[in-house]
UniProtKB/TrEMBL annotation:
<protein>
    <submittedName>
        <fullName>Vitamin B12 transport system, ATPase component</fullName>
    </submittedName>
</protein>
<feature type="domain" description="ABC transporter">
    <location>
        <begin position="2"/>
        <end position="239"/>
    </location>
</feature>
<keyword id="KW-1278">Translocase</keyword>
<keyword id="KW-0813">Transport</keyword>
<dbReference type="InterPro" id="IPR003439">
    <property type="entry name" value="ABC_transporter-like_ATP-bd"/>
</dbReference>
<dbReference type="InterPro" id="IPR027417">
    <property type="entry name" value="P-loop_NTPase"/>
</dbReference>
<keyword id="KW-0067">ATP-binding</keyword>
<dbReference type="Pfam" id="PF00005">
    <property type="entry name" value="ABC_tran"/>
</dbReference>
<keyword id="KW-0547">Nucleotide-binding</keyword>
<dbReference type="InterPro" id="IPR003593">
    <property type="entry name" value="AAA+_ATPase"/>
</dbReference>
Amino acid sequence: MIKAEGLSGGYGDSRLIKNISLTVKKGEFLGILGPNGSGKTTLLHLLTGTLPPIEGSVCLAGKPLTEYKPKELAQMMAVLPQKTDQAFSFTVKETVSFGRYPFQKGLFSQQTEEDEAIIENAMKQTGVLAFADKSIRDLSGGEQQRVYLAQALAQQPRILFLDEPTTFLDLAYQKELLDLIKRLTRENGLAAVSVFHDLNTASLYCDEIVFIKNGTAGPKQKPETAITEEHIKALYNTKVSALLHHQLPKPLIAIQPEEAALKLQAIPFEALLQVRRDEILLQTEIPLRTLSSAPIGSGFSWNRTFLHKRLPAHSDQKEGLTAYLSENGFYPQETCAMASSGRLDRLVCRTFEDEELSVCICVMSGFSIWILINGFATDQFFVRAVMGAEAERMKVLGGEQNEPGEILVAATQTKETSSEENIEKRLKQLIRFGTAECVREAADLLE
């Protein structure tokens, strides 16, 4: 579709782009990423022909850009810039209609029924049809950006260039815009080339990624091989952590604050527990990394609120908990909630600690267990901690408890100076000993 060879160029005699070669195929979504000032937008100008190269060439569909007449080029290529200044107060429909100009013949040619259908479809696709008769000046920056995308789509291009297309869009419209472009690449064979600042967005939507630094580019790569912790650290000269998307095999990057920003005082879990006959509540200022089998907040999550509620036996726990959270102003997105039918003011709660770590263990009605850690643990350790607590519970109860309660493990995730392996070894010892002791005490209370 488009091929650049030995491309160098810039403004005046400067060479902001140095000897870059790349190809973009039909149906491909290519992301261009790199630090500020690396030449991303300049490369886009060179690829679209708005900036002539000092050296090298760009071919579109096997033909050099320089051999296309302006209208011919506009029939094949559309560009959505980062921001467009609207000098005249055209309506939204008039602005989108300009996308059909390359296909009109003669100075005073009128739009055909086909043009009208294409314009309306472009406005529908981008969600601006409702603004059709409004002046574009009366729209927000995000709404204007969607209008200009509709204009670009009205050209029915074979390749679409975008310069940070989501800059002025809120989260919902970012997703809608990128979903639309991705769908057009798959269903219509549209080729798309976009400059991104957001590594994670590029990882989720792009088929291939090119990184630029100081005007030079590396090879095209799949996101899963391009977006690695080591690569991003070197490229941006900053600390990051690599993650995996919870549903897709896509790498994600999280910035890593300075160690001083991560240091927090230990949370006094026992002192914060609010214990009543029908409810046990713990709320913390910082969210805790949590793994739970509870009806609400199960699996891995981050939570500030932990609730154990007394509900009638044989009732629908999830339904009852959901109603209680709604009626009492809790946020389900940051709440881990479980239930049982027995009194909750007979719990056993103990804190076990060594020089650097502390673990608070609570055993409640129905032998539900909370393990609250001041410290850091890997996701694998969370799983092992849940399994270990379950094993200790069943060992102490001797299989007499037919329906043991839920188990949750939550940690502040504050890192200490010791190695992760050493920390988790000590945590395992504290949890194993503490769980057994607390379950025994809870069992004695029931006798």
